[in-house]
Design goal:
Rossmann fold; 2 domains; seven-stranded mixed sheet; three-stranded mixed sheet; 16 helices; 15 strands
Length: about 475
């Protein structure tokens, strides 16, 4: 079935890919899924101008153009190769580039050529990732919004799964050599969640640890049939370059295309964010990575959603301050209140209730000052979260500062009053001085101990009280995914 449209505005896809692993992943997975009936074949190409731009090396081109799926692609649109010359590591280091990676730089230079070509030809453009898989009908769904007048279509596309998703899809017969990959959204989401990447695991809001970074916040559905996300990062499924009066590519070269490029060329009012995986599912995958996390193990058995949420809210606020204009921008933050549903079953009232709660949390992140209770808990335990030495650390500081204060202020003044009495009672002044010193230390340690016990009892009581609001629900991270984590 072909989407009804005039066909006058050409549709371009583009990819920067090189190396055996990525070219095979592109052809066998990404391209195979794009060739499902509801994707590229659903686009009208009556003008004959639809095009797939492949930015690659000469060696990779020779392999790619021989593949059966490329020949099938040519039945739906033209295929054009753009020559790539990857930059050498030594040459890249001389550039002192902000990307800190010659591979990222080469890929971004490819994306720069591709988007400039899309703008020049006034096409509807889409950048394709080699390590990604589209569900059936995704392209058809996204393209409809362009036909309705939107300049851009945003979708949720983080690094969602490990590369084991490919093995799972092969095992389930979805991926077959030289054959289009046709998989329905809910089936793709199920396989993806079964192979969640560590980035998704560590970004679960109710997980009892602070992640290395957080570009989205995830919640597991009560029945574990899917997840929902609040995100301040997104990907463009389509940009209608024919509707852009100017094209700002200033950020490319020092930032990747998913950094601030979208926001430099689009306004919130001109785009649509697809929030339901039933409509559009794009899964990006990569091998396992090692991440640093910092456990929240204050009275671990009594952790509550409120305690964890308070800490995450403060963390996200601080993280966003440091990543604005690099990983995210005002444009993307404008969509943070939209809830993304990745589900394998129909949404239930419990799922919608969870979405209401997550929006309230996002309101605290972006629109409210951190509540006193959250500040109290977070600031009291910042060092504990990162070094797992909170109790020893605090007690040591209290002891040192308290003892210093006692020695410098309390004890000398105490002696000013007591010493004359001790001198008057000359035979006993040495004994009395020692008694006073011992009693003073006893009183000090008793007061310190009482305050410490009161402090921890208060926190424990708060945790127990807040725990009644709901048990935390998350998927644990395997230790093999962690690097130098503070367990």
């Amino acid at each position: 079935m072909v989407v009804e449209e005039s066909g006058k505005i050409p549709v371009y896809f583009g990819i920067a890919v090189w190396g055996r692993a990525f070219r095979e992943s592109f052809v066998n997975n990404a391209l195979a899924s794009l060739l499902a009936d509801g994707n590229i074949p659903a686009l009208n190409n009556s003008s004959g101008k639809n095009r797939f731009l492949i930015y690659t090396t000469y060696e990779d081109k020779r392999w790619i153009e021989k593949q059966a799926l490329i020949k099938l692609l040519m039945q739906y649109m033209d295929v054009e190769f753009l020559e790539m010359t990857p930059i050498l590591e030594g040459e890249y280091l001389e550039l002192n580039n902000a990307l800190n990676s010659s591979k990222l730089y080469t890929m971004t230079m490819g994306h720069l050529q591709i988007v400039n070509r899309m703008y020049k030809d006034k096409a509807i453009g889409s950048i394709v990732l080699a390590d990604s898989i589209y569900s059936n009908n995704s392209i058809r769904s996204a393209h409809r919004y362009i036909l309705d007048g939107k300049k851009g279509v945003l979708v949720f596309c983080p690094r969602f799964s490990t590369d084991k998703i490919v093995d799972s899809l092969i095992e389930q017969k979805y991926i077959q050599l030289d054959t289009p990959l046709t998989i329905e959204p809910r089936d793709l989401v199920k396989v993806a969640i079964d192979n969640l990447h560590v980035d998704m695991l560590m970004e679960q809001w109710e997980a009892p640890y602070i992640p290395e970074f957080m570009m989205e916040a995830g919640w597991l559905f009560p029945d574990k049939s899917g997840m929902l996300f609040q995100t301040w990062s997104c990907w463009c499924a389509f940009i209608n370059y024919s509707q852009l009066l100017t094209h700002n590519v200033e950020s490319l070269g020092r930032n990747t295309v998913d950094g601030v490029y979208f926001g430099a060329n689009l306004n919130k009012e001109d785009v649509h964010l697809i929030t339901d995986s039933d409509e559009f599912t794009l899964i990006s995958y990569s091998p396992n990575l090692s991440r640093r996390i910092y456990p929240i193990n204050i009275f671990h058995n009594s952790l509550s959603k409120t305690v964890i949420s308070g800490m995450k809210i403060s963390f996200v606020k601080n993280f966003l301050k440091g990543s604005i204009s690099t990983h995210t921008d005002i444009f993307k933050l404008a969509f943070a209140s939209h809830t993304i549903f990745m589900h394998t079953k129909d949404l239930t009232p419990d799922c919608l209730s969870l979405a209401s709660n997550t929006k309230a949390i996002m309101n605290k992140v972006f629109n409210e000052k951190t509540p006193f209770h959250d500040k109290f808990v977070l600031k009291s335990h910042t060092s504990f979260l990162r070094y797992k030495k909170e109790l020893i650390y605090i007690n040591k500081r209290l002891y040192n500062s308290g003892l210093a204060f006692f020695r410098s202020r309390v004890y000398p003044n105490f002696l000013v009053v007591i010493k004359p009495m001790c001198v008057f009672l000359s035979p006993m002044h040495v004994f009395l001085s020692r008694v006073v010193r011992v009693l003073s230390k006893v009183i000090y340690y008793f007061a310190l101990g009482f305050l410490s016990v009161f402090y921890w009892v208060l926190l424990y009581s708060l945790a127990q009280f807040n725990r009644k609001k709901g048990v935390i629900n998350y998927i644990p991270i395997p230790n093999s995914h962690l690097e130098n984590s503070k367990n």
